[in-house]
Amino acid sequence: MATVTKNYMVKGMTCGHCKSSVEEEIREVAGVNSVEANPGTGRVEVTGENFTDEDVTAAIKEAGYTLKP
């Protein structure tokens, strides 16, 4: 299966602790190979194979955040 990279915009992720929390939860999603969150912009880049938007969104919610509309 091909590796894909997707970007998500996270609401309320504004500091280093926020970044760590979001990255930690997303790394647990099956199929995710790497995660890079930017608290300055709220952007989270997820790279991997065979992961779903629903699983990443659930991980972001588990970390205590939501996606920007």
UniProtKB/TrEMBL annotation:
Q: Report the GO molecular function annotations.
A: metal ion binding
Q: Which InterPro entries does its entry note?
A: HMA_dom, HMA_dom_sf
Supply the name of the protein.
Answer: Copper chaperone CopZ
Gene3D superfamilies assigned:
3.30.70.100
- Read off the Pfam families from this record: HMA (PF00403)
From which source organism is this entry? Answer: Corynebacterium comes
- At the top level, the lineage of the source is Bacteria
Q: Where is the HMA domain?
A: 4-68
Keywords (alphabetical) are: Plasmid
